[in-house]
Write a structure and sequence with these properties.
207 residues, alpha/beta, four-stranded mixed beta sheet, 20% helix, 19% strand
Length: 207
């Protein structure tokens, strides 16, 4: 991909949709919650978080960018809003379209202009996926990741300590599953098969 110099925006074109429509898309039977209406007296930062909850991740559109924990900070600045994001990994081809979608959604809601910057330390971890996001993954047919760090530890202090345990089938809940491949449709997922219902599924690998 690097040799062909194909841009990430070509691989994942940003959707030309108003912010209110971003949460209405149903993918694989799973829809993001609709963007709530603006409340009287609602602050710009509070409103921004509500809007971002309807911005879908381009690789796993059943999740929002806030479900994944990609948005680390939203602050009000003199000329608009500043949003800090942490990519899932350096070089992720979806990063550009995520940033473009964030700007588009917030500006469509009248919250612009919007600056988006990246923060790479501490590195993103699957522990940042919200509980609601884990349930949406399961409903989408992807087994959610297990927890990596010690309970209560800050991300920067969390050791890479993955507890080995069976991956439950997101379709029938059986723990009788087997891994078919270390990689699924994307590098962050592995391919599994349930030995009970015989359905294949992907597992979002914990990191």
């Amino acid at each position: 991909m690097a040799a062909s110099r194909t841009s990430s925006s070509a691989l994942f074109p940003a959707p030309e949709l108003p912010a209110a429509a971003l949460g209405a898309l149903g993918v694989g039977g799973v829809a993001l919650p609709p963007v709530p209406p603006r409340l009287p007296g609602q602050g710009r930062v509070e409103r921004a978080w509500a809007v971002l909850g309807g911005v879908a991740d381009p690789e796993v559109p059943a999740l929002s960018v806030t479900d994944l924990g990609l948005v680390r900070e939203v602050t009000e600045v003199a000329d608009g809003l500043h949003v800090v994001v942490t990519p899932t990994y350096s070089g992720c081809p979806a990063t550009e379209v995520i940033e473009a979608s964030i700007r588009q959604a917030l500006e469509a809601d009248g919250l612009g202009p919007v600056q988006v910057s990246q923060r790479r330390s501490p590195a993103w971890t699957t522990d940042w996926i919200s509980d609601a996001g884990r349930e949406r993954l399961r409903a989408y047919g992807i087994a959610p990741p297990g927890r990596c760090g010690e309970a209560g530890a800050a991300p920067a202090e969390q050791p890479v300590r993955i507890v080995a345990r069976g991956v439950a089938c997101p379709h029938c809940g059986s723990a009788q599953t087997e891994r078919l491949s270390a990689f699924g449709a994307t590098a962050c997922k592995a391919l599994y098969r349930c030995l009970s219902c015989r359905e294949p599924f992907e597992h979002f690998k914990p990191i």
